[in-house]
């Protein structure tokens, strides 16, 4: 794939991934053929900051976990009212990393 396209993708979507994954993502994208570019460029990634705000406002209902695709954990948080509030508070610190991991799983579908 063209280096300019890859660099533009990294600049626009870098906040959706962990920093230590960026070099690997760049290398894999450079080796990728152009036929997958249209699908990759239209893929929507979850914004970790938005998920954090949702977690702070409605984390005890599990909405943050539902948004990133962790349906089982979302149901667990919903039924326990966020683990009586404890689980909801813990997620304030962990939900951004979980969101970035889900984004990484999504982009790996294109890279491999």
TrEMBL record:
Signal peptide: none annotated. GO terms for cellular component: membrane. The chain crosses the membrane at residues 49-68, 74-95. The keyword Transmembrane applies. Pfam families: TM2 (PF05154). The keyword Acetylation does not apply. It is a multi-pass membrane protein. Keywords: Glycoprotein, Membrane, Signal, Transmembrane, Transmembrane helix. It is found in: Membrane. It comes from the Bacteria. Residues 45-93 form the TM2 domain. This is TM2 domain containing protein. It comes from Pseudopedobacter saltans (strain ATCC 51119 / DSM 12145 / JCM 21818 / CCUG 39354 / LMG 10337 / NBRC 100064 / NCIMB 13643).
